[in-house]
Every structure is written in C-alpha cells, then in structure tokens.
Design brief:
280 residues; mainly alpha; MetI-like fold; 13 helices
C-alpha cells in the first residue's frame, strides 16, 4: 500500500511539473526573446541569446521610445484600481439586496446577472461603443463605468453565494443597537465578505489589466488615455510589419505588475472560491 501511494505521489509530481512547464514556458519565451535582435527572433525564436543575437536592453529602450509605455502604465493602474473598487462596492451591495429581499424582481435580477456571464462580448461591442459615444464615456472614468457593467455578472454571482452564509441574526442585532441599513451593511456584513471580495478583486484586476478590445473600441489609439495592451499593439504596423524585439520587451514590462499582484494574492483565490461554494 505504501509503495502504491509513493508511486501515485511520484506520478502526480511529474504531471504537475509538466503542467508547470507548459504554463511557464510562454513567459520564458517572451523574456528570452526580449534580449535578442528582432531579426534573430524570427529566424531562431526558441534559441537562447548568443554573443551574436544578444542586444542587451536595446529592445526595452526602443519600445519605451516608440510607445510611451510609462504613461500607459499609469492609466492602466488608474482604470484597473478604480474599476475594481466600483465592482466590489456596487456588486456586493447588489448581491446583498438580491439575497435578503426575496421577490420575483430580485430573482429576475439574479438570473439576468448570471446570464450576462455567458453572453459573448462580440455580441454587444458595437452597441456598447455607440452608447459610450452617446453618453460621453470615451474617457478613463467612462471606461470604469463600462467595466463595472461587464464585470458585474461574475461578481454578483460570487457575492450572492457568500451572502447566503451570513446569519441574519447578526444584522438584526446590529439594527437593535441602532444601526441603519447602510451602517449594518458596511459595518457588519461587508467585513464578513472579505474572502470573496479579495477573490473578485484579483480576478477582475487580471482581466481589466490585460484587456485590449474594450479600451481599443472605446478610447482608441489616438488619445492620451491609451492602456498598456493598446500601446503594445502600436508596435504592429498597418501592413503587419512589427518590431518583434521591442514588442517582446514591452510585453515583459506589461506583465510584471500583474504577475507580482497575482503571486502576492493567489492564496486568497482558492479561499474565496471555496468559502463561497461551501457556505453558499
């Protein structure tokens, strides 16, 4: 029995290592090619840099000069942080209302939010672009409002599952002590939702930071509010010509913040998902 368990553990380790290699290799591929000349990337994309192909930080210098990446990083941080805050605050309150107020309207709202998760973005992107133009949302604040709408489905779904686990007696005790509904929610209920709030924040931040299509459709490439994916795309010419070296270098710089953020907070993802699933 002991030998069988050791064999299973060994197979599991080998399998997980293989999965890790498959997942991490694209990152290694990008970092590796960011230090090679752009012509050598095409001729030998999988080879390590040599004395002939190694160009140091030249690709990073060219990419920063061509794209203005630091400005894009600033706007990406602004849009991501504000959007995540709006999503957490408003969707958690919405989920709380849906769970606590039992009616046909709240049931319909819940199913509408759940249905929104399976609607492809391509089905609504042109209508959304027109509405963004009509309501003057083609700016960073408008982008945050749009992300709130697109991120609400998953967030409400996750928060609803967790709110069901919060004993209503806690809220009744708070109201007896003189708390109004807002004080009860933000002082009693919301702190209990912390595991799910952190999970929602991580998932939404990773999506918003890496999103290309929505900023491209709403803000475009001709404004000062360009985000990182948009400015990276600028390295691809209209005829398909591209500076692969600078492109790889800018991809490395763009993924560093979100990788650090994910590695710092990854333990909360499983905790929040499990908590919502078990308690919901």
């Amino acid at each position: 029995m002991g030998n069988k368990k050791k064999m299973i553990d060994a197979i599991s380790i080998v399998f997980l290592l293989a999965v890790a290699v498959v997942i991490l290799y694209p990152l290694f591929f990008i970092v590796n090619n960011s230090f090679k000349g752009k012509f050598f990337i095409s001729s030998d994309p999988f080879g390590l840099p040599t004395a002939e192909t190694f160009v140091g930080i030249t690709n990073y210098e060219n990419g920063l000069m061509k794209t203005g990446l630091f400005s894009a990083i600033g706007w990406s941080f602004f849009i991501t942080i504000l959007s995540v805050i709006l999503i957490i605050v408003f969707t958690s309150m919405t989920a709380y209302y849906i769970v606590r107020v039992k009616s046909k309207i709240t049931s319909l709202l819940y199913y509408m939010f759940a249905f929104s998760m399976i609607v492809p973005f391509q089905m609504v992107m042109f209508t959304m672009a027109d509405l963004a133009n009509i309501f003057h949302l083609k700016n960073p604040i408008g982008m945050c409002v749009l992300y709130l709408g697109f991120g609400a489905g998953l967030a409400v779904f996750m928060f609803s599952g967790f709110v069901k686990s919060v004993p209503i007696e806690i809220e009744e005790a708070a109201m007896i002590d003189g708390c109004n509904p807002l004080q009860t929610y933000f002082g009693v209920v919301f702190p209990i939702l912390k595991p799910t709030a952190i999970t929602v924040a991580i998932l939404q931040a990773m999506w918003i930071w890496n999103d290309f299509l929505l900023p491209y459709l709403v803000i475009g490439i001709g404004t000062q509010y360009r985000t990182i994916p948009v400015v990276v795309q600028m390295l691809v010419g209209s005829n398909g010509n591209k500076d692969l070296g600078a492109l790889m270098a800018m991809l490395v710089l763009s993924i560093i913040p979100i990788v650090i953020f994910y590695l710092t907070c990854q333990k909360y993802i499983i905790e929040g998902v499990v908590a919502g699933a078990v308690k919901g």
